[in-house]
């Protein structure tokens, strides 16, 4: 039995694209990065509010960590046609921490 990784034949997919990304592919990444940067300052106040609401039972650092992870997913799911960004992010971050 031969090892398929040592066959020497061409690979069906490259780990990195040989062509640079087009400008249309870069725009969503730049917009996402901008939205993440806009959302980061919301984490602290929301984490403090949630901690107080829960009676101080969870460490503030844990709530902040949850917020950082949640922002990445929330930015990916954000649809500007449905809601303004900040109210959407505040509401969803709070729910993620609860």
Walkthrough of the structure:
This protein is mostly helical. The protein has a single domain, classed as RNA polymerase sigma factor, region 2, helix turn helix motif (Rna Polymerase Sigma Factor, Chain: A). The protein has 3 helices and no strands. The longest helix has 31 residues. It is elongated and about 40 Å long. It starts with 22 loop residues before the first helix and ends with a helix.
Which helices and strands appear, and what pairs or packs with what?
Elements: H1 23-53, H2 60-77, H3 85-97
Helix pairs in contact: 1-2, 1-3, 2-3
Which features would summarize this protein structure in a list?
3 helices, 98 residues, Rna Polymerase Sigma Factor, Chain: A, mainly alpha
């Amino acid at each position: 039995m031969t090892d398929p990784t040592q066959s020497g034949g061409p690979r069906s997919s490259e780990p990195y694209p040989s062509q640079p990304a087009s400008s249309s592919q870069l725009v969503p990444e730049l917009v996402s990065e901008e939205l993440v940067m806009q959302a980061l300052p919301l984490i602290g106040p929301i984490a403090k509010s949630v901690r107080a609401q829960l009676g101080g039972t969870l460490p503030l650092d844990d709530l902040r960590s949850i917020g950082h992870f949640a922002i990445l997913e929330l930015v990916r799911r954000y649809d500007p046609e449905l809601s303004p960004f900040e109210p959407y992010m505040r509401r969803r971050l709070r729910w993620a921490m609860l």
